Amino acid sequence: MKKTIFITGASAGIGKATAKLFAEKGWNVIATMRKPENEKELNLLDNVTLLPLDVTNVDQIKETAQKALTLGDIDVVFNNAGYALLGVLEAITDDQLVAQMETNFFGVVRVTQAFIPYFRKRGSGIFITTGSSAGLMGFPMSSMYDASKFALEGWSESLSYELNEVGISIKTIEPGLVATDIGDRSVFVSHPAYESLMGKFMALIAHGEDVTTAAEIAEVVYGAATDGKNTLRYVCGEDAKALYGQRLAEGDEAFRDSIKKMMSI
Ligand SMILES: NC(=O)c1ccc[n+]([C@@H]2O[C@H](COP(=O)([O-])OP(=O)(O)OC[C@H]3O[C@@H](n4cnc5c(N)ncnc54)[C@H](OP(=O)(O)O)[C@@H]3O)[C@@H](O)[C@H]2O)c1
């Protein structure tokens, strides 16, 4: 029997790569995105259905989840939509910080809530979330993005106990730097007093050659969806594995010194 995955933020990057991989593997894919009318690639695939979803739109989350469930059974919900609000907190507006949490955190929470009753009645189902190594370690110049990703960590870990009770799994994918266009969708807020630190941070995230591809992260999502395990976190990408390993080995205080040394700050 064909399985089905529901994906948020499938118009680009990790979401699109995951939609393509699952379709290739013979799954039905419900690829949701803010503007399905602009999609030029996934709409050409037989087993992919496009549905509209802005994860900040509470009514649309409910409508799209209901519509998706009329298409057939759903086995996996992949909460992936997100963007990065980066830069200096004192210059970030209230609208900007609320918007970051609305998308990266409440979007995931609300989409999950919309599917829990269905998975509970069915006695099975897997939620997978795109977290980040920035949810396991705080990096300079990204306090709001990191807060949104740290929030997902505590939320998923706590939620795992109640969901496991009714046969549902929850898993988080933790990539390091991934070669996507996230920079184009992200918001960078600068302030003259922090120019030097911002410059060092931008240089750190700009390096390209050893970055993981979205296709490689999609393989990790596929593994999480099919490994039959109840693992909570999948740290992925050599950069994330090395840095997180270092943080665990050094402890969080010494690790902050290592980050400072790494960035010459
Ligand atoms: N790239 C990295 O280095 C990296 C590392 C760790 C974690 N991540 C996480 O991976 C996830 C995917 O990012 P990506 O790197 O693949 O970036 P991306 O190429 O920019 O893709 C982001 C996707 O999220 C969608 N999106 C943004 N806001 C949305 C909203 N309100 N409602 C619905 N969809 C929305 C975008 O849709 P539109 O086309 O409509 O804008 C796009 O499809 C994010 O959660 C990000 O935080 C990325």
UniProtKB/TrEMBL annotation:
<comment type="similarity">
    <text>Belongs to the short-chain dehydrogenases/reductases (SDR) family.</text>
</comment>
<dbReference type="InterPro" id="IPR051911">
    <property type="entry name" value="SDR_oxidoreductase"/>
</dbReference>
<keyword id="KW-0560">Oxidoreductase</keyword>
<dbReference type="GO" id="GO:0016491">
    <property type="term" value="F:oxidoreductase activity"/>
</dbReference>
<dbReference type="InterPro" id="IPR036291">
    <property type="entry name" value="NAD(P)-bd_dom_sf"/>
</dbReference>
<protein>
    <submittedName>
        <fullName>NADP-dependent 3-hydroxy acid dehydrogenase YdfG</fullName>
    </submittedName>
</protein>
<dbReference type="Pfam" id="PF00106">
    <property type="entry name" value="adh_short"/>
</dbReference>
<dbReference type="InterPro" id="IPR002347">
    <property type="entry name" value="SDR_fam"/>
</dbReference>
